[in-house]
Amino acid sequence: MRTVGVEEELLIVDGETGVAMSMSPAVLRPFGGAAGNDGGGSLVGELQREQLETDTPPRASMTDLLADLRTWRRTADLAARAAGARVAALATSPLPVQPSTAPKRRYEEMVERFGMSASDLLICGCHVHVQIHSPEESIAVLDRIRVWLPALLAISANSPFAHGRDTSYASYRSQAITRWPLSGPTDAYGSAEAYERMISDALATEVLLDDGMLYFDARASRRYPTVEVRVADVCQDASDAVLVAALSRALVETAARDWTNGHPAPAVPTRMLRLATWQAARHGLEGNLLDPATYRPRPAADVIDTLLAHVRPALEDSGDADLVHDSLAELRERGNGARLQRRTLERTGDLAEVVAAAARRTAGHE
Fold it and tell me: Cytoplasm: present as a keyword of the record (predicted)?
C-alpha cells in the first residue's frame, strides 16, 4: 500500500484580536529553529514570520496519519501559546496584515526578485505526498489526476476572508497563489523526459530561483519518491485533511493502474482545468462544479459522487472506503472551512471570533 505524508501551513495569530502575528522565530526559538521527534515529522518556519509548517512521516494507515496531524497541531499550538500566541488552520488571514518575511536567504531572494508578489503573500496550504515507484509512474499519475484536482480544492476550501473583507470566494488562497510565475493546473507531460525538459526550460529563463518554485497544483517531488498534491487549502479540521489525503492516495493509485493497463490520460486542455479550478475556488461545495468529463456545470455533490465512483476500487483495496464515506457525510452536514468561517461571522459579526473558532478547531477543542 502506498504511504502518505502531509504538510500543513498554519497561521500564528493573536488569540484575542485574531490578527496574524510575526512570531515564528520566537515560537521556534526553544527548538533551535525547528522541532522534530523520533517518530518523524517536524515543525518549522515558512516564507512569512506569521506562519509555521508541520509535516508528518509517511504513513500507510489513515488512522496513524490523523494521530500525527493532531499531534503536530497540538505541538504547534503549545509552542505558540508559550510565546503568547495561537495557531489557526486558515488558508488566508481574515484580518488585515502586512506580512514580514522570515530571515532565510532564499526567502529574501524571493522578495528581491518578485517584490510584492512575495512580500505580501500570506497563504497556507495542505500538501499531500503520495508514494510513487518510478519517475515514469509519477508523470503518468500527474497526467491522469489533473482533471480531479478541482474537486479536492472544493472539499478543502478554507479561505473566504482576506484583508478584513469577504472575498466572495470559498478559496481565495488558490487565487492568490497565481501571482507566482508557474502555478495552478498544468499541461499533460506524456513522459518523465518531457517533465524534466519542462523544468530545464523553466530554469533556463532565469525567472525562477530554483525548481522549488514550481507551484503547480500537483508535481513530482524533487526531495522524495512521491507525487505532491498541492491544490488544497489547509483544512480547519484535521479529519478533513485526512479525507483529502485518502482521496489523493486513491487518485494516485487509480491513475497508476490506468497507466499500467494502457488507458490514456484524459485529453483535457489546461484552459478547461483553469476554468474548473476557478469554479471550485469561487463556490467550494456550495454550488456547481465543472464535471470532469463534460466541463459543464453540475451540482458539487454530484461531481464529488463521480470522483468517489472513479476511485472506489482503490479506496476499497486500501481499506479507506468507509472512512471517506463517513468523512464526506460529516463534511456535507457541517460544511467545509469556508462555510464554517462564514457561519461564524454570521453568528458573531466578528472576524476575530472567526479566527478564534478556527484556532479552537485547529487544536481539537471544537
Answer: no
Cell 531572494, located at residue: 109
Looking at beta carbons, which pairs linking 108-112 to residues 24 or more positions away fall under 8 Å? 109/209, 110/47, 110/209, 110/213
Query: What share of the chain has pLDDT > 70, as a percent?
Result: 98
The DSSP string of 49-83 is TTEEEEEPPPBS-HHHHHHHHHHHHHHHHHHHHHT
Side-chain-facing half-sphere of 294: CA atoms under 13 Å: 7
pLDDT tens for each residue of 92-108? 999 999 999 999 999 99
Question: Mean pLDDT over all residues of the chain?
Answer: 96
**pTM, rounded to two decimals:** 0.97
Q: What is the CA radius of gyration of the chain?
A: 19
Q: Which residue in this structure is represented by grid cell 523526459? A: 193
Q: Which domain holds residue 260?
A: 4-362
Report the 10 Å Cβ neighbour count for 11.
32
Pairing of strands 183-184, 215-216: parallel
Q: Which helix (H) or strand (E) holds 87?
A: strand 86-88
Amino acid at 191: S
The number of distinct structural domains making up the chain is 1
- Per-residue pLDDT, averaged over 72-99, amounts to 97
Q: Cβ(328)–Cβ(308) under 8 Å?
A: yes
Output helix, strand, coil percentages for the chain, rounded to the nearest 5: 50, 15, 35
Q: Rounded CA gap, 53 and 73, in Å?
A: 10
pLDDT above 70 (res 140): yes
Residue appearing with cell numbers 473558532: 357
CATH number of residue 274's parent domain: 3.30.590.20
What pLDDT shows up at residue 39? Answer: 63
- Burial (CB count within 10 angstroms: exposed 0-12, middle 13-18, buried 19+), residue 117: middle
Q: What pLDDT does residue 30 have?
A: 86
Give the H/E segment covering residue 342. Answer: helix 337-348
